[in-house]
C-alpha cells in the first residue's frame, strides 16, 4: 500500500511468502478494486498488525475494524498499535479509540547500529541456561517491570502462564535464541536483553531486564550496548526500543546510550 513504508510492505510480503502469515488472516477494505485499508490478524499473540489506510474517513475505518472484531475470539485480549509518524495517524488513532477500551501511551527510540567492543562483559545466548532458569529469569523481570502492557497481561493470565507464553515468543526460532543475550558476572546472571528481527534490516528490543538485586547499577546501559552490537552483527542497521512514557529510568538509559526519540506509540487493548 502507498501509505505504508516499503520496509513494512516487504516484511508483510515475506511473511506471507514463507507461510508465517496466512492470506485468510489478511483483511482488506476495497473500493472500486482499490485497497483502502488492511489489517492482519495474528491469533497466536492476539495482535492486529500491519494496520494501514489510504484516504478514508474515521467512520469507514471504525466500521472496518468492527467487522474484523466480529471474527475474533472474544476470550482473547486483542491489541493493536499505531505510531504517531504513521500516515493518516489522526484518523487511525480516532478509530482505535472508538473500537478498543484501553490505551497505553509509549515512546519509540531508534539508533543506527554499529560495533561496540563488549568483550570486557561476559554475555552468552540463552541456550547457556536451562528452560527452567530462563522462565525464572523472565518471571523475575516481570515482577519489577514498568511496562504497563506486561503488568496488565500478568493480572489477566497469571505470572507463570504469561511468563511461559512470553518466553516462547522470545525464543521460538534459532535466530531469536542467538540474539537473546544473558549478562553475567562470574557465575551470577545480572540481566538479559532480547533483540528481534522486525524486517530484513530493522531490529527491535523485545525485552530487557535486570534482576532486582542488581538494579541501579547501570547494567541496563551495558545490555543496550550488547543489543546494539548483536543487531549490527546480524545485519540489522536500525534498532528500535519502545517504552512506556512513565519509564523514566529506561528513557535516560536509552538517551545516554545514543538512542533518539523517533515518535510516540499508542497501544490499544480490548480489555
Automatic annotation (TrEMBL):
PROSITE patterns: GNAT. GO terms for molecular function: acyltransferase activity, transferring groups other than amino-acyl groups. This is Acetyltransferase, GNAT family. It comes from the Bacteria. InterPro entries: Acyl_CoA_acyltransferase, GNAT_dom. Residues 136-271 form the N-acetyltransferase domain. The keyword Transferase applies. Gene3D superfamilies: 3.40.630.30. Keywords: Transferase. Pfam families: Acetyltransf_1.
